[in-house]
Design brief:
Length: 136
């Protein structure tokens, strides 16, 4: 375990099991080696060897197909990421609300509400000056 100012006892996650090691575990298991011998030979834990061999025996896959994926679902596909990247590269000082408008297919706020002067701030629809924030 490591510690820091913000996370006094943060655990360090082990690296993911490489495909090469997993295939080697399966190969050695098929050759008849015991789980403990495989763990010692490949310098991995006995639990890692046991898990890899059980998943292979039961499902012939790296993961249990009946388990649901954890974490947040992906919201962007490759096309979305490419579009956002090109939008930011072509216009680095763009505001977040302008990106939202472009994603929604609306004209930009500067086209709808042109600023009366050449300052960096924009005039919002309500007539107040803002740094790119829309009131909802």
């Amino acid at each position: 375990m490591t510690s820091s100012r913000f996370f006094p006892r943060a655990a360090v996650m082990a690296p993911a099991l490489s495909i090469d090691i997993e295939q080697r575990i399966i190969q050695l298991r098929q050759e008849g080696l015991a789980l403990g011998d495989i763990a010692g030979h490949l310098e991995v834990s006995l639990g890692t060897v046991n898990k890899a061999s059980k998943l292979h025996e039961e499902y012939r896959e790296r993961t249990d197909p009946s388990k649901k994926r954890t974490g947040r679902a992906e919201m962007l596909n490759d096309g979305d990421e490419w579009y956002l990247k090109s939008l930011l590269e072509s216009n680095p000082p763009i505001y977040l609300d302008e990106i939202e408008w472009k994603l929604e297919g609306f004209p930009s706020q500067s086209q709808l509400y042109p600023a009366s002067d050449s300052s960096d701030h924009k005039t919002s629809p309500e007539g107040t000056r803002s740094a790119g924030h829309r009131s909802k």
